[in-house]
Give the backbone structure.
Amino acid sequence: MSIKHEVSTSKETDLNCPSDLSWELNQRLDDAYQIAKERFDSGHRTGGFGAVGRYFLTFVYTGLVRAEFLRGRRGLIACSVAAQDAYNRAVMSYCILAQKK
């Protein structure tokens, strides 16, 4: 294999350049877990279909109602992040229920 096709997989490159986006996404994931835990403790349950439905509806709501689609590529990314956040909250709530059983 030639040198052009070799891939370097060193951990130093990943740790030296943390991006703001990855930090924000990790923070959103932590927040989603806390919200899911609070919702589970208050008696709210969700299933797999509910999580997928919540993803789709949040994507559409963010894109159409909040008009994020008008921003182009950034709007599409904003819709995707919002939908993934809603999906994570629903799935984490479901996972907490599965762990308790």
